[in-house]
Amino acid sequence: QCSACKWLGRYRTVTRESLSLLEEMGGQYAENTMVPFPGPLYNSIMKAEVEDKVKFLVLTLEHIINLMDDTEHMDLVKWNPKTVEYFLKVLHRQSSELKECEDQYQQSPHKESYKLKIKRHFRTLRKILKKERYSAQAWEKIRRA
């Protein structure tokens, strides 16, 4: 079994830790903070080959890290800074472990359709932040997403 397969076997545990930190940093999610989520994309990736799952997770983690590591625009949010810092460390660790797995795989001859969809999703999240002037409520929408 490759290291990627082993890592993916722990995915639920690792994800649970990240989700727990997200909840801890801001408390209960407000009911009115719904934002679009690419559920069908995530469902389709669950049925994909291990190689595509790893590449998808690496790409998604990079986008989450870039979005959440925006401390200059987080002035209005009241999250626990230590929890945010730990959350980012956890994501960086996950990303680096998965990148090691990703390096085993050859460059795909076909263009992965999920790359564009993930990019669009995170562009939408950034637009929400900009439109709402990086307000605490906007950041809560991002945390929920």
UniProtKB/TrEMBL annotation:
It comes from Cirrhinus mrigala (Mrigala). GO terms for biological process: defense response to virus; immune response; response to exogenous dsRNA. SUPFAM superfamilies: 4-helical cytokines. Pfam families: Interferon. One of its GO terms (cellular component) is extracellular space. Coiled coil: none annotated. Gene3D superfamilies: 1.20.1250.10. The keyword DNA damage does not apply. PANTHER family: INTERFERON BETA, TYPE I INTERFERON. It is found in: Secreted. InterPro entries: 4_helix_cytokine-like_core, Interferon_alpha/beta/delta. Keywords: Antiviral defense, Cytokine, Disulfide bond, Secreted, Signal. This is Type I interferon. The lineage of its organism: Eukaryota, Metazoa, Chordata, Craniata, Vertebrata. GO terms for molecular function: cytokine activity; cytokine receptor binding. Belongs to the alpha/beta interferon family.
